[in-house]
Amino acid sequence: MEIPLTGFMLHSNDSDPAHSHHLYITSWDGRPVHVHEFKGVTSYDDGHRHRYAGTTEPAPSGVQHSHKYFTFTSIDNRHHHQIYGTTGPAIYLPGGGHYHEFSGMTTINGANPHRHRYSGKTSL
Prior knowledge:
With 124 residues, the chain is mainly β.
């Protein structure tokens, strides 16, 4: 199955030989796409918490959808964790706009291997 998409690629002009390009998708199957920001604080486990923040992957606007997300937590107690998953479906608001709920467990890490719970709502 082929799905037409449009977008643009941004080239980094830095001198780092391992530089990257950023791909920004602007439409998916003819529909504009959008993203949401998300952030929060993990559960308190193994004597500490972690903060996290990120932006979801793009998804089409105007139809029921969910978003994938991925980020790293802050470094606390000399380690960090990965957070990733898929949001719940769009929750539409009476005045327009929508948000998504997300939750899960971090990856296991630390000198005393452990994980943290996280949950929240994306930005509108």
